Automatic annotation (TrEMBL):
Organism annotation: Operophtera brumata (Winter moth)
Reactions this protein catalyses: DNA(n) + a 2'-deoxyribonucleoside 5'-triphosphate = DNA(n+1) + diphosphate
PANTHER family documented for this protein: DNA POLYMERASE BETA, DNA POLYMERASE TYPE-X FAMILY MEMBER
Iron-sulfur found in the keyword field: no
Domain DNA-directed DNA polymerase X: 12-309
InterPro entries, alphabetized: DNA-dir_DNA_pol_X (IPR002054), DNA_pol_B_palm_palm (IPR028207), DNA_pol_lambd_fingers_domain (IPR018944), DNA_pol_lamdba_lyase_dom_sf (IPR027421), DNA_Pol_thumb_sf (IPR037160), DNA_pol_X (IPR022312), DNA_pol_X_beta-like (IPR002008), HHH_MUS81 (IPR010996)
Needed co-factor(s): Mg(2+)
GO molecular function: DNA binding; DNA-directed DNA polymerase activity; metal ion binding
EC primary class: transferase
Name of the featured protein: DNA polymerase
Subcellular location, principal: nucleus
Alphabetically ordered keywords of this record: Cytoplasm, DNA damage, DNA repair, DNA synthesis, DNA-binding, DNA-directed DNA polymerase, Magnesium, Metal-binding, Nucleotidyltransferase, Nucleus, Transferase
Lineage: Eukaryota, Metazoa, Ecdysozoa, Arthropoda, Hexapoda
One Gene Ontology cellular component annotation held by this UniProt entry: nucleus
Length: 310
DNA sequence: CAGACTGCGCATCTCT
DNA sequence: AGAGATGCGC
DNA sequence: GTCTG
């Protein structure tokens, strides 16, 4: 549920560059509605963040994958003047700033934010005064706006993990619960809590739709004591180990691993690992019975969750 | 120089 | 009402 | 915006 990422963390020698690149990324996504530029800027910020040397010039930066002419020039401008004219202009654009603010509410994207601003709704407070114009999702986003932007301490997640497991065990002891995400990677705090729940009867394929639906419903009902609001309810079921791998991340690690899978003639997503035929058409999913299995199949050295912080 | 950049489930809107 | 499209989040 | 074919 976390909307913000931060390549400008710990010992990052290029954090000032990362900051303005991330700001440009947000602008492209929220205001220009160009998610590809957004990703391009984020990739550039990410590669600079993991670079072990302080970048001294645009030319030097340009050697890195993901940084081309335009960002190279921006780095030079920032090095010379300490700021970016493009960013200064954006700061002065009140509508752009308003759109950026509104998209921080979960459920409000670039299109809805622009529409709100067009209709004079330009702040979180404005949203709170127009609850009747919000979807269920957006209402929750506004109600917990401040909370959603806070990080969750590991200790707190451990508490919730305990309560969740206890609750679910009482419902049906065969349920298993795994908290994935950055928590599983050992981080001290997380932006959200990704809980993956499975039940043996869901693994026995098909012919169980009714039972499955009943289980899901009883699960959701049981969670009512712990969960205060429900944004959406689905009945999706996926291959457990691929899901646990995917939801543990990090996203950069996932991208690396998927690329490696392709090299080895497989396609990997959150549902399954499938061989890619010569025609390029994916075949039937490979039988997986552990996370390690996935690594084995694509001949990729096993990494513990803690080693997946990339 | 043109096209890719993951793509899918859910909620909600729009069309018929 | 039902099919399809759109916005959104991940 | 950057990379690839």
């Amino acid at each position: 549920m976390s909307k913000r990422k931060n390549p400008s963390d710990d010992n990052n020698l290029n954090s000032d560059f990362c900051d303005f690149l991330m700001e440009l990324a947000e602008y492209e996504k929220n205001v220009s509605r160009n998610v590809h530029k957004y990703n391009a800027y984020r990739k550039a910020a990410s590669v600079l963040a993991t670079h072990s040397k302080r970048i001294e010039s645009g030319d030097e930066a340009k050697k890195l994958s993901g940084i081309g002419d335009k960002i190279s020039k921006k780095i030079d401008e920032f090095l010379q003047t300490g700021k970016l004219r493009k960013l200064e202009n954006i700061h002065q654009d009140e509508d752009a700033q308003a759109i950026n603010t509104l998209t921080r509410v979960t459920g409000v994207g670039p299109v809805k934010a622009a529409e709100f601003v067009r209709n004079g709704i330009k702040s979180i407070e404005d949203l709170r005064n127009n609850i009747d114009k919000l979807t269920h999702h957006q209402t929750i986003g506004v109600r917990y706006f401040e909370d959603f932007e806070k990080k969750i301490p590991r200790k707190e997640i451990q508490d919730i993990e305990g309560k969740l497991k206890n609750l679910i065990k009482n419902l049906d002891p065969e349920f298993t619960v795994t908290i994935c995400g950055s928590y599983r990677r050992g981080k001290r705090e997380s932006g959200d809590i990704d809980a993956l729940v499975t039940h043996p009867s869901l693994k026995i394929n098909e012919k169980k739709k009714k039972h499955e639906a009943k289980l899901m419903k009883s699960l959701v009902d049981a969670l009512k004591g712990l969960v205060t609001d429900v944004i959406s309810i689905g009945d999706t079921k996926f291959m457990y180990y691929c899901a646990i791998l995917y939801f543990t991340g990090s996203d950069v690690f996932n991208k690396t691993m998927r690329a490696h899978a392709l090299d080895k003639g497989f396609t990997l997503n959150e549902y399954a690992l499938r061989p890619v035929g010569v025609t390029g058409v994916p075949g039937e999913p490979v039988q997986i019975s552990s996370e390690e299995d996935v690594f084995d199949y694509i001949d990729y050295p096993y990494k513990t969750p803690e080693e997946r912080n990339m």
